[in-house]
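Following up on my earlier thread - several people asked me to post the actual chain instead of describing it. Fair enough. Here it is, all 274 residues.
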Amino acid sequence: MLYSLMNHPIVWLVSTVITVIGFVQGLISVKRKRISCDCRSYVIVKNNNIDGLKIDYYDTEVNDLTVTNIAIWNSGNTVIRKEDLTESRLQIKFDKSFSDVLFADVLSRTVSENKVDMVSFDKNEIVVDFEYLNPKDGVVIQVVHSGEWDDYSTIEVVCLLKGSKSIKKPMTFKSKQNKKGQVDLVTFAGYISTIIIIIFSVALIVFIWLVRIGIVDYIGVGLSEADYVEIKSPRMLMYTIAFGISAVMYAKGLIDRIKNNYKLGIPNKLKNKL
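Reply from S.P.:
Thanks for posting it. Predicted structure:
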């Protein structure tokens, strides 16, 4: 049974595809440039109706006032230099329909040597500059802004890394209590499918090796003599090694995606300031 199954062309095709994808994921993760971001927002005043309280900004009355802390950091595993950005600067853009930036400044840096700093800001855009960012290097920009508050208000962190995907990440403002990212159905399905592949690969490898070293009696689990010979063959040995490497690559990719989605990789020095 096992002999005929392992020699079936469909089984070979599926296993080859799974193995190749695992290796590709591993190669991609070897050297990766990536910038991530997260934010926390604190409503100071909303629809100001407090008797005697008036907030003016250069003679303009402000009825809604919010402080938003935006963390930006190198979440990859290699240094990102200023020259790696196509426009040499990173932009934070606010939704023009709801907010005007009143003030912005650097709240915290992981290190000062990389010269990461806020260059300028206007009503709807903040420009951030840096010389380089080592892995887990970053900055927290504190923004004081006006505007009507709702569940659809967003900001975008925009840049383009040479040889990598553009960073254009819309973020819905979240209260401090809502720290976890949102997981959509497609992302969840991707998690489940990856977990199934990992479990299947590990289970198959463990079973084959238990039979190979004699802990599991092949006759007791319904295998034939031909199946046992196939399990003991060099080809099956290479098969299990390839599946093992693929399982490790899949697991590493899954961990990276979960850390990115749930913001688990935020450097502690930045997290404490959000």
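The chain has two domains: 2-30+184-271, 35-172. That should answer part of your original question.
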